[in-house]
């Protein structure tokens, strides 16, 4: 931080009697020194970049240390075998009790075992990329981090990467600098496989987001949402008015809408690839991966289903659209009436509606796509209701800002920052404006969805 900024901050702190919460995000960022992150190959906050690409491309797998990083003496590394029922249970319990909560600690993500089986076992997954830490004396699992392989495309350049997710340290072991050790250890294990880049998302601001999206929520069961503190009755409205506002049709409207099947994979993947090419941050799927991500766990019982994928087949038998959403409930913390909230998250989708236009942002293309997506996602919300979900969530990524307002998705209090490890890239629009409202003009160039 330069002298000028330091002085500004000191002045501010005096004015605010040391209340840091009154500082802007930028000012808070300037004050943290990121003791760990400043040692890592990531973009600095005010770094201006001339071209995109790897930050450090000097290393080879054989240069990477062979031994795991040293761990605090009471603990030990433990590669988690997620095919083992007990070990899966250990991960489930750790995350169910210690993973991400909302700002007010009213809710906590409740990833299910079926969800982990889907999310952690795509084609190319590796046992040693499910990294645990256990208490030596008792064997209790107290920390976890995972990696899965993905083919990323950043502004048209292919980047062999992993996705890092499910970083978790037990509540009683927080602030002991265990997270940096977990991150270094997963980096080591990934580098050993000759992969040097990663994609990850977090709620916290770290150096430096390549994009930031906002969560948006479409209430389905408004009464329950209100009872658990997920949504409030707006001033001047009654509960009955809110229920009426969010009432949905019982049945979907789109002609030719049906669940995707194995026979649709080639055609749907081809449509998806065409659609995705508009975005700047894209996950490329091969046939096997596409099948996993969109039909994975098709064998699990309906009430535990994780991924829901639908296609639209027209009169000529051609697939013109598809959409998908996944089920990820919130545990409701300390509520007498309800213990869980059913939540559907919009996942990937594609449509041929605007493909014939040369410019995605032309007036005709925009209008055509907006109309089509609005009716498709309206049906997605209805299907989520049929699957007993209480709210339908979407980010401001992809082309989502085209339908959020019309379909009554209200802005949430959560944001998601997207990061690249060991790769510098120009900023990518996240579908929000300076004031954090939906950006319906520029939309977003984020094409990836993280679980
Ligand atoms: S995002 C979800 C993260 N999980 C949760 O939020 C669950 C609830 N919280 C916890 O379990 C803990 O608070 C965690 C931190 C584990 C998050 N991403 O050990 P500490 C930095 C990255 O004393 P704790 C997800 O899963 C923090 O700035 N860094 O802190 C994606 C500080 O560094 P610095 C984070 O609170 C994860 C240091 O850690 C995060 O006990 C992607 C403090 O460590 C965060 N979410 O534990 C990981 N939170 O001093 C990066 C805090 O520099 C992957 N920190 O400020 C990078 C790519 C690796 C692979 C590369 C392959 C090539
Ligand atoms: C999940 N994917 C994930 N990660 C990585 C990839 C890890 C975590 C990433 C960051 C993060 C942290 C915390 C959350 C999500 C993501 C949980 C969270 O805070 N969710 C917010 C939320 O559900 C997202 O907005 N908020 C609700 C809300 O805004 C509840 C708020 C309760 C109070 N805090 N409700 C308002 C709905 C209302 C809007 C207006 C219309 C009517 C409905």
Describe this structure in words.
The protein is of the alpha+beta class. Helices cover 25% and strands 25% of the residues. It contains 10 helices and 18 strands. The protein has helices at residues 3-15, 25-31, 85-98, 113-119, 178-191, 222-228, 239-245, 265-276, 287-295, 363-386, and strands at 53-54, 75-79, 107-109, 130-135, 141-154, 157-169, 197-202, 211-219, 257-259, 281-284, 307-313, 319-327, 330-332, 340-341, 343-351, 391-395, 410-421, 423-424. The strands form 3 sheets. Strands 2, 4, 5, 6, 7, 8, 9, 10, 11, 12, 15, 16 and 17 form a 13-stranded mixed beta sheet that branches. It has a 3-stranded antiparallel beta sheet with strand order 3-13-14, sandwiched between helices. A two-stranded antiparallel sheet has the order 1-18. A hairpin with a 5-residue loop joins strand 11 (307-313) and strand 12. The longest helix has 24 residues, at 363-386. The model is unreliable at 3-23 (pLDDT under 50). It binds tetradecanoyl-COA (MYA) and ligand MIM. Ligand MIM is lined by residues 100, 102-104, 106, 165, 201-203, 215, 217, 219, 230-231, 410, 412-414, 416, 450-451.
Q: Spans of 5+ residues with little confidence (pLDDT < 50)?
A: 3-23
Present as ligands are: tetradecanoyl-COA, ligand MIM
Average pLDDT figure: 93
Q: What is the rounded distance between the termini?
A: 35 Å
Sketch the major β-sheet: 13 strands, mixed
Number of helices: 10
Query: How much helicity do the residues have?
Result: 25-40%
Structural class: alpha+beta
SSE topology string: HHEEHEHEEEHEEHHEHEHEEEEEHEEE
Strand content: 25-35%
General shape: globular
Radius of gyration: 23 Å
Number of strands: 18
